[in-house]
Amino acid sequence: MPSPIAHSVSGYVLAKFLPQEKLKYYPSRWWSWEIFYPVFVAIFADFDFLPQLITGERFHRGITHTFVFAIAFSLIVSWLISYCRKSCFKQLFFLTLVIYSSHLVLDFFTATSGSGLQLFWPFTDTYLKSAIPFFPSVHHSRGLFDPSHLIFIIWESCYSILVLSVLWFWKNYSSRKLSE
Hints:
180 residues, mainly alpha
């Protein structure tokens, strides 16, 4: 499965490519709303490890990895933020849904020995996974410093550099085109 790094980079880049109203944020803080929000939304599905730590029950890749949850999460978060910050609900909902769904898409394209994701739960219990994986699998049971993780780290680093490079070139090309 992609790490929080790949999910974060993907969410951040998607937010930069998607049209959006400038959301009001607090510029005096050490973090920027424009960075924090897409990164938080992109990795939120993996916060399902918290109940697993408390109860010992397996929650990862459960309900938080479904499109129904993505829609519900996007509705609730967008409504709360648009109410508190007087932002455009529809635009924020679309942004949130696309970024959250990017997490599901990346997990779908991961080489996994497991059963995959129940993307369309509760409508069907069918597990789905890509026949052509894009991300290598990680074997958590081997420990944190297993040499096999080096392939995963190199792959994710290359992916992140590539995606951020595309954003950089696009921004530079767009700004050059506007100045002409």
